[in-house]
Amino acid sequence: MKGKIVAVCSSENKGERKKNIGRGRLIPRHGLEGDAHAGPWHRQVSLLAQESIDKMVAAGLQVGPGDFAENLTTQGISLVDLPIGTRLRFASGALGEVTQIGKECHTRCAIYHQAGDCVMPREGIFIKIIKGGEVALGDSFEVTGAFTALVITASDKGSRGQREDVSGPTLARRLEELGLAVLGVKVVPDERRHLEEALIEACDEGGTDLVLTTGGTGLSPRDVTPEATLAVIQRPVPGISEAIRAASMQITPLAMLTRGVAGIRGNSLIINLPGSVKAVQECLAVIEPVLPHALEKVRGAGGDCGRS
Question: Is pTM, for the whole model, over 0.85?
Answer without folding.
Answer: no
